[in-house]
Structures are given as C-alpha cells and as structure tokens.
Fold this sequence. Notes:
This protein has 144 residues and is an all-alpha fold. Helices cover 78% and strands 0% of the residues.
Amino acid sequence: MLMMRMADAWVRGTHPWCGWIRLFLLPLMLIPMWFGLMWGGMLLMMAWMLLPLFFNKPVGRGNWMTRACLGVQIWRSRRLDDLCNLLLVALAGGGLVLASIMAARQEPILLACGVVAYFGLYLGFLRRCGHHLDARTRALAKAD
C-alpha cells in the first residue's frame, strides 16, 4: 500500500494542509537542536519527507498553498531561468542554516532572526511560484 502511494507523493504534497505543515516542520527541527537532541531533529526531518504519503490529492486548485506547491513543481521542472526565485529559495535556506547554527549555540535572538528570514523569504518564493502557475494557466487558456 505504501509503495502505491509513493508514485504520486508529489501530488499529495500539494494538499494545502500538507504544504502548511511542511512549511512549519522545518523550523520545528530547531527545538531538538537547541537541546542537543539531534535525533529529534532527524525524526522531524523524516516526518517532513514522509508527510505527503498521509494526505489525499487536493480537491482543486483553489487554495493558495496548492497553487504555490504546483508552481514550485513547474519551477523545478524547468531550467533555472527565474533568478529571483532561485535567490529567494537560496536565501531562505541560508536563513534556516543560520537558525540551525544559532540553535546549536543557543543564541535566541539570532535564531529568531534566521527563522523570520526563512519564513519571509520562503513565503515570497511560494507567492511567486503561485503567480507563475496562474500566468501559465491563463496562457494555456488563451491558447485554446
């Protein structure tokens, strides 16, 4: 049963609840890191990877997170010609790396700055991906 669900895991990952939970699971890894429990962070990372297997396919494309996740799939499948999206996702990852280093050092102010940078930049990336999906949908509708 699990193997059958893995083939369409990326579609299940576009379920809005899955997208929002995954967005918050990454910074939650910092809590066990703060306390020096790296295995706890690894468990949360495994949950982050396996989470799409527990959701159904989204009912439609009306939800913002669903459109954003579908836009991310389109962005990943094309060559990297959108440098703004690449910069946003790289900086968001950098914010998360900074936050993880600060969690290990137990520096709360810089940890919070890294988490805020991650959320702000990654939500901006998702917003742009959603706009790209909407533009592509409009272009395909106009072509018909």
